[in-house]
Write a structure and sequence with these properties.
Blueprint (H helix, E strand, L loop, with lengths): L6 E6 L12 E6 L5 H8 L18 E5 L4 E4 L10 H15 L5 E9 L6 H13 L3 E6 L6 H14 L8 E3 L8 H12 L3
Bound molecules: guanosine-5'-diphosphate and magnesium ion.
Length: 195
């Protein structure tokens, strides 16, 4: 897997537009503003592959990127308070359409802000993935925003907040310091099954 050779493919606003799944797919999921675009840019050594949005929640599209032996899928963020009903419905339609159409999903990278208790939406997402039998890992973002003591405290709180999935890999990440980048890349490589 060459992380320096990932290119943008296309964006889709409705699930009927989604192309057939022809390669293993690695999926990025999380709340709006959790740091998903920043993580994607960091993983692939790019400044602006996934546009770092200054208007969180406005874009309801699934974005596809292509690597040499996998497709990377950027799901629309959830939990944006100001969203209208219509937009929330479109989000749900897209997510259902994506996850329930028999795609070759080899890994979902579920992002959660390290600083905050996981939201109900975060927990719903984890339980959905678990029940669907989709392989996933949890990446805690923005770790640079905590000092050592705060980090230790959050790590032990997280064990209780997300106690249902003890066997699931948890990675602590920062797009600012690069902490956790190699661990995430290794998980991706492992999920694809080829170097
Ligand atoms: N300090 C810090 N800020 C971050 C980190 N990741 C993202 N951000 C900031 O959080 C905001 C949302 O990031 P973005 O990647 O657009 O989130 P997205 O909505 O999930 O795609 C931006 O202002 C980023 O600069 C991180 O690891 N550390
Ligand atoms: Mg984004």
């Amino acid at each position: 897997m060459n992380f320096n050779n990932v290119t943008y493919l296309a964006s889709y606003g409705t699930s009927s537009q989604l192309p057939e799944s022809e390669m293993p797919e690695i999926v990025f999921s999380g709340r709006s503003n959790v740091g998903k675009s920043s993580l994607i840019n960091k993983l692939f050594n790019r400044k602006n592959l996934a546009r770092i949005s200054s208007t969180p929640g406005k874009t309801i599209t699934i974005n596809f990127f292509k690597g040499n032996n996998a497709i990377f899928v950027d799901l629309p963020g959830y939990g944006y308070a100001k969203r209208e009903r219509l937009v929330t419905d479109r989000w749900a339609e897209l997510m259902e359409g994506y996850f329930k159409s028999g795609r070759n999903i080899v890994l979902v990278i579920q992002l959660i802000d390290v600083r905050h208790t996981p939201t109900a939406d975060d927990l719903n997402m984890l339980s959905f993935l678990y029940q669907m039998g989709i392989p996933f890992i949890i990446v805690f973002t923005k770790c640079d925003k905590l000092n050592k003591t705060e980090t230790i405290n959050r790590m032990s709180q997280i064990e209780n907040e997300i106690s249902g999935y003890p066997e699931i890999n948890k990675i602590f990440f920062s797009s600012v310091t690069g902490q956790g980048t190699d661990e995430i890349r290794n998980q991706i490589i492992k999920s694809i099954g080829v170097l």
